Cadherin 7 (Scleropages formosus), 787 residues
Amino acid sequence: GESTSVNCILFFCAGCVALSPSSGPLPRPLRLQGPGAATGFLRRLKRSWVWNQFFVLEEYTGNDPLYVGKLHSDVDKGDGNVKYVLSGEGATSIFIIDESTGDIHATKRLDREEQAYYTLRAQALDRETNRPVEPESEFIVKVQDINDNEPKFLDGPYTASVPEMSPLGTSVIQVVATDADDPTYGNSARVVYSILQGQPYFSVEPKTGVIRTALPNMDRETRDEYVLVIQAKDMVGQMGGLSGTTSVTIMLTDVNDNPPRFSHKFYQYTVPESLHVESVVAKIKAVDADLGPNAEMDFRIVDGDGLGTFRISTDQGTQEGVITLQKPLNFEERAIYSLRIEATNRNIDPQFLTLGPFSDTTMVKVAVEDVDEPPVFALHLSEMTVSEAAAVGTIIGTVTAHDPDSANSAIRYSIDRNTDLERYFNIDATTGTISTAKLLDREVNAIHNISIFAMENDPSQIGKGIALVTVTDVNDNAPVFAIEYETFLCESARPGQVIQTVSAVDKDEPLHGHHFFFDLTAQAVDNHNFTLRDNKDNTASILTKRGGFRRQEQSLYRLPILIVDSGSPSLSSTNTLSIRVCRCDPDGVAQSCSAEAYMLPAGLSTGALLAILACIFTLLVLVLLIVTMQRRRKEPLILEEERDVRENIVRYDDEGGGEEDTEAFDMVALRNLNVVQDPMVRRDVTPDLPSLFVSRLAYKTLPDNIIFREFIWDRLKEADVDPSAPPYDSLQTYAFEGSGSLAESLSSLDSLSTDSDQNFDYLSDWGPQFRKLADLYGNRESRNPFS
C-alpha cells in the first residue's frame, strides 16, 4: 500500500537537487543536499510531499529578497492550475511565496538572537476550485547564526576584597561574560577570559573567569587597592573573535600583621606636687599601622618606682595610654619617678606570630615640681572630749600642723566661725590649744564639728583640719513623765484596781542606762484614795485604795508622784497625775466625765445637750449679724465733697425721739430753701448763723421774679465750677419757696436763722418737756444755743 513515487521536489537556493518520480520503490533513502536544505532523509510516506527544514543566514545585507527555497507538487503540471499558499509565523510579513512557482523569499533581515526559527505551513490548492490538491504540511525555517554579538559582563563592573598577606592562588572573585550568539553552532559563543590590567598581582582562569592572587604576602599598608581590566573574547579567543571588557576593583582588607610601636624610647613629663589625685599626668601613643580592632592595644606599667603612685589606662577612642595620679605627690619626699610602659595588641592573629612580638615598651620619667603648699595637719580629724560641766576656759585638746615646704614657715591657727556660730570654743593662735569659751550643754548639742584653719605668712596658703568635740554627760536633768497622762477612773472601780501605768524620761544619758524610782510625795502617802506601786522597770502603776467613787462628790483628783533617777548625785522631780472620775459602760469605757452632765435630768442625753448648745450659738451669730448691718447703714457725720447726695437714695427706718431729741436729725434740712446748704455741714453741729443770714437776706431784698432768676443763675454757676457735678445732659431740679408770704415759713425751726427779737424765755416755765427749746431759744443775749 505504499506509494511508489515521490510527489514533491525541493529546490534550494544554493544549488538545487531535484527528486524526480521513479517507477519503482527506492532502493534506499535519498539525502537532501544543498546549502539551504535540511540535513535529513526523505522517506516514502503515504502523503505526496515531505521535507524537514530550511536554513537562512541571519543579518543578510543584500538589496533583493533572500531566496529561501522552493515548493513543488507532482500534481502541478506546469499549466498554472495549482497555486501554493504559505501560512504561519512571519508569513506574508517576513516570508513570501510565489503562488505559481512555489519559490519562498525572506523580505526582511533576520536576527537569530531575536528569533531562532519560524514554523510555517504550506499547501497546494486548485486554482479554480480553491480546494487542496495536497494535504497541508508544516516545515521550519531556521535562522543560521553568525558571530555578530560580543561577550558582555552583565554584572560588571565588579568590586571585591581579599585579606592582605593572602597566599598565592587565593580566589578573589569570579567574573562571567555572556555571548548572545548560538552556543550550539560553531565557536561564536565560546568565550575565554584574559587579564589586560592588574598583572603581576592577580590572574584569571581563561575558562571559568575566576580571579586569583598572583603574588603572595601583598601588604595593605603598602598598597590597599588594585583595579583590574578583564577581557572576554568569543571564537575561543581566535583571530576575528569579538570581545568585551570589565573592571574589577579589589581592596586588600586589614589583618593584624603589624605590632604597636612607640615613636620614642624615652618620654619625660613635669607635674606640680599639688596635682590632685585622679588627675591626668600625661598621654602617650603607640603607632600601629593596622586598622580597627587590629590596632587596638592595652597599656600597662611593667616596671619602675611609681607602680603604686601612677596608673595607666587605654583611651578607647584615641588608643592612647593615659597616665593618672593615684597618690598625692610630695616634692620633699620624691622628686622623680621612673615608669617602664608596655603597649600590646589586644587581638593577635596566631597565623602571624612569626612576624614578631606584637608589643613595644618605652620609659617614662615624671618630674615633680615644688610648689608652695598650705600647712598640713598631723591629724586631719582630731577627736576630743569635754564634760558638759566644764568651766569656761577649760583646755580640751591641741591640734598641730606643719609647713610641708623646705621653708618650714611659722603656723597660726584659727577657728572657722561658720562651724562655731555660738562661739563655744577658742583656739590659741600660736600653739593650737582649744579651750571652752562658754558653758556647754550636752542636751542642746552633744557633738561639735569644728573646722580649724592653719595659715602661713601668705594668707592664700590655708590648711584645714577638723576637731570633733564630744560633750560628755553629767546628771543635770531631773526625770519627768514620759507623756502628759490623761487618767480616767470609772465610778464602778474596785479597790486595788490598776487605773494607770506611768513611765519617765530623762534628757541625760548615763553610761549604764536609766533607772528610775517612783513614789508618792510625803503629802500624798496617807491619802485614802490611791496608792503607787514601783514596777522596778522604769514604770509605776497607780492603784485605787477604795471603791465607790462618785462624780457628784468629786470629779477630779490630783496625785503628786515623786520620780528619782540613779545619777550621782541623783535628781528628782514631782509630777502631778490628774485622775478624772467618769461614768463607764459595762466594758469599762468612759462615757461621761463631767459633774454637770451628771446633774442633768435622766431623759436628756448628751446629743440633745449638744443640739441645744448649737441652736443657742446660731441665734447669737444671727443677732450679731443684724446689729452689724444696722451700724453699717448709718451715714457718716460728715458728707464728703466727692459724694453727690443727689445720686444716692438714703433710707431711714429710725423713728424720731420726740421733742427732746435734738441730735438725731439735722434741723437745718427742714427749713425752706432760702438758706443755701454748705457742702461740708456737720449733722451734729448747728450751722454758722452769719453765713446763713447773709445768704437769706440777699434773696429777701429782691422782687420775686428776680429772686427766681438769681437763684437759678447761682445754681448754674455752682454746677459749672463743681468738678463733681453731673454731665451737661443731666436734669437738675431745685425747690425754692420764694418770699411771697409776709409770714414766710410758719415753722418755728426757721426762727434760728432770722433776726427776730422775740423773747422765748417763757418756754422755761412750760415744764420739763420744753426744757430743750428753752435752752436753745431762751436768754439769747446771755447764752449761745450752739455752744
Summary: Residues 501 and 541 are 4 Å apart (CA to CA). The radius of gyration is 68 Å. Helices lie at 595-599, 606-633, 689-700, 704-721, 771-777.
